[in-house]
Amino acid sequence: MTEGRKVTNLKGKIIIITGANSGIGLESARGLAKLGAKIVMVCRNPDKAKQSFSVLDAEYPGKFDLLLADISSLKSIEKLALEIEEKYPRVDVLLHNAGIFNAKRVESVDGIEATLATNHIGVVHLTELLLPLLKASAPSRIVITSSLTHLKAKLDLDDLESKTGNFLLRDAYGQSKLLNLLYMRELQERLNDTDVTVNCLHPGVVSTNIGSSGSGGIFFKLIWALARRTPFFISAEEGAKTSILLASDPSLEKVTGKYFSNCKPAKYNKLVDNPEIIHDAWIATTSIMASAK
């Protein structure tokens, strides 16, 4: 929570957070529970998830539930959505935090390039499945963790999965984060007559374990671990402030279709304002999802 801002008591609110077992996701969960919300932690690794859950539950007893799901898997997301619909009468905030970046090209269980599958396709699939519940819970919010890297991303709508040419980490990751913003705008248009908002954010250059969770071998993970110790990185607690703001601040209840950094609206890639690109990105995304099933 940022200083000087009034934040309503979130008692009675249910917030879904993906990738909630470490880093920004964990600190977002902690911060929003402190404000009174019920947090549903969605995590992939059972052991790490249970450890984080135990720590958080000890701090704020009864404020956390834990669901296991792989956000890179369409079937796992579908199972997760059903669990959420069965267990919870409402969803007030859907906070997408799970993400990876890989130093080499690998594919998800659905045969989709893994960076795209986790960072974008998973966001779209879970959001679309939970839209009826979000609409029924309105006013509600969708918050998507993007990245500053989207600003210089190259968008190749004919090859979103990086099947041709050399696979470059910065290109695949940046493109997935640009697609987040394009989806935000596409979704904003569809939600215009509802009280469901959707916004994206850059959390800052945060010292988390995202670099060690992807694919790239021991050398890449060692370099990432060393880079995290430089003064250019901020803490996960600092990085979570913008996510917490977008999920809770009452002054943002009607704000939608925006990109935030450092807790305020920020500059974004000009492609995000292009209706044709927004439409084509949506068609390309849904085509990949359809072919994977």
What does this structure look like?
Strands 3-2-1-4-5-6-7-8 form an eight-stranded mixed sheet, sandwiched between helices. It has 293 residues and is of the alpha/beta class. Helix 3 runs parallel beside helix 4 (114-136) and helix 4 (114-136) runs parallel beside helix 5 (169-190). The chain has ten helices and eight strands. The chain starts with 13 loop residues before the first strand and ends with a helix. Strand 5 (140-145), helix 5 (169-190) and strand 6 (196-202) form a beta-alpha-beta unit.
List keywords for this structure.
eight-stranded mixed β-sheet, single chain, 10 helices
Cα distance, first to last residue?
Answer: 40 Å
SSE string, helices as H and strands as E: EHEHEHEHEHEHHHHEEH
Shape by Cα distribution: globular
Mean pLDDT: 90
**Beta-strand fraction estimate:** 5-15%
What structural class is derived from the secondary structure elements?
alpha/beta
- Unreliable segments of 5+ consecutive residues: 216-232
Helical run tally? 10
Largest sheet: 8 strands, mixed
Strand order of the largest sheet: 3-2-1-4-5-6-7-8
What is the number of beta strands? Answer: 8
Evaluate the radius of gyration. 18 Å
Percentage of helical residues? 40-55%
Please give the structural blueprint.
Blueprint: E1 14-18, H1 23-34, E2 38-43, H2 46-59, E3 64-68, H3 74-87, E4 93-96, H4 114-136, E5 140-145, H5 169-190, E6 196-202, H6 210-213, H7 217-227, H8 236-239, H9 241-248, E7 259-261, E8 264-265, H10 275-292
Parallel strand pairs: 1-2, 1-4, 2-3, 4-5, 5-6, 6-7
Antiparallel strand pairs: 7-8
Helix pairs in contact: 1-9, 3-4, 4-5, 5-10
